[in-house]
Amino acid sequence: MPKPNPRHPNFPIPGGPGLRAKGWRQEALLRLLENVLSVGEDPDNLVVYAALGKAARNWPSHRAIVKTLTEMDEDQTLVIQSGKPVGLLRTHAKAPLVIMANCNIVGQWAKAEVFYELQRKGLICWGGLTAGAWQYIGSQGVIQGTYEIFMRIAERRFGGDLSGRFVLTAGLGGMGGAQPLAGRMAGAAILCVDIDPERAKKRQQVGYLQEIAPDLDAALAMIDAAVREKKALSVGLVGNAAEIYPEIARRGVVPDVVTDQTSAHDLVYGYVPKGMSLDQVRSLREDGQGQLMAASRASIVEHVKAMLDFQRKGAEVFDNGNLIRTQAREGGVANAFDIPIFAEAYLRPLFARAIGPFRWMALSGEESDIARIDDLLLEMFPENRIITNWIRLARQHIPFEGLPARIAWLGHGERTALARSVNQLVASGELKGPIAFSRDHLDAGAMAHPNIMTERMRDGSDAIADWPLLDAMLLCSSMADLVVVHSGGGGYAGYMTSCGVTVVADGTKAADERLDHALTNDTSLGVIRYADAGYDESFEEIASKGIGHVRV
Ligand code: NAD
Questions:
Q1: Whose CA is nearest to atom 41 of ligand 1?
Q2: 140 lines ligand 1 (CB under 6 A)
Q3: Is the CB of 27 under 6 A from ligand 1?
Q4: pLDDT digit string (tens) for 493-507?
Q5: 79 in Cβ contact with 97 (< 8 Å)
Q6: What is the CATH number of domain 21-138+352-552?
Q7: Which of 194, 245, 305 maximizes ligand 1 atoms within 8 Å of its Cβ, making it the mutation to test the pocket?
Q8: Would you kindly state where each structural domain of the chain is located, as residue ranges?
Q9: Is the CB of 41 inside a 6 Å radius of any atom of ligand 1?
Q10: Which three-class secondary structure state does DSSP give residue 334?
């Protein structure tokens, strides 16, 4: 039975033993589609996160997808083009059930303005990374990544944790909403600025944000007290980051760590320029796009100048993956890229071993299934410090949203081993239902994003998008259940291509085979991608784990 969803009553959380589709594989994908809407930011408009990241092109497309998933056989493949189902073709039972290509625009045309026009004509939709691929699991999807970044900073600069440290950030949206909890888990006093009071309230309701301060004076006083007492605390503040950051700098306050996760990538549908109300911005989105783009960029220039100011005064400042430096540079801030990108600054050694944001969802809707897998992880990887620390923290701090799910940064071999053991638990009836395995698109072999994931690759291969395309083809030939190729929409148009994958552990032997091939080959390609770029960790991984790398 679906569960009521207090946040979005019209979008119940799927679950229960009853099938509407002809098999668990199809049912799983249907539940994942329902889930991304149940935890999404604006499900009435099919928007899941990141301003415009959508689960389907429009409601007729959504209805057609649901109907097809419900009626299709296991030896058919549903073909989806930018969120619209376009074909149901006979393949075979080992082929993917769903393949998708979302928002891929030919190079010279891949610009925000062209995307908006195609979207207006109803010809395209942007899937974000995990929205259009039905893999989004709420703010939890990004939280371990944010936490690991904070911990790398803590290890390098602050003696191991962020207690007694002030973290300043902005953006409490679908993904940015993970920041207050990740900061608190790392021990920090974290201040999160968002222009939209509803977003701040939402994060507080779901347990990710503790306090909302009435004004900047109160916010800074709360942070100051927490820093002095070395108390972990998250504080939200309603305001425009392009005003608040410079004002904090003007007062001579220098945070220890500064970042930002507003939707700065999208100057029309994401970022809110200073001096404008949300209503003004919403009306300009329809008929004043040029004005809005100019105003957003001007605000981002001030926002980033304040970040650079904090950096000059000694703060650890980084770009958390929202293209804010790119927008500022185009607005004339020549040194915007003095701010490093998180992927290169903190996480590349993990990606070089294909360790990245792996995740799983309990299709039964039962939290006990996730708890059992938490135990299994601890039994299987007792020596893995990242995992044991993370699971302990996640259990203690992370509330479930939508289908119970867990994220854990696992690497080559680990993902496959876990998934196959879980498949046995499904087969034996120890779990209440099948489990879907997936990962973020921001993963070793899966993404080309030269201003985020692949910035300053050792061999200069930043902009080469062959890797995610190869990944998608490999995953189709490795029997994954859903395979998708995404490129950027809105402000991300022309900036990225990525590949996503979902495989369902339904307890069958066929699932064992699918999990084994798909998950092993996905991370193999990730390690190979970084070996090809010259990273030593990847060569170690290839040698110790016997990955089939062809060296030229
Ligand atoms: P979202 O659209 O759900 O939320 C963005 C938030 O920013 C909103 O709450 C909005 O009110 C707020 N905002 C906009 N302009 C503001 C301003 N000037 N001052 C204060 N607040 C402002 O987006 P999201 O899903 O939270 O993603 C945020 C950004 O992070 C996007 O650019 C996304 O692509 C990026 N992202 C990065 C990673 C990563 O791996 N590091 C992962 C996911 C998303």
A1: 321
A2: no
A3: no
A4: 999 999 999 999 999
A5: no
A6: 3.40.1770.10
A7: 194
A8: 21-138+352-552, 140-340
A9: yes
A10: coil
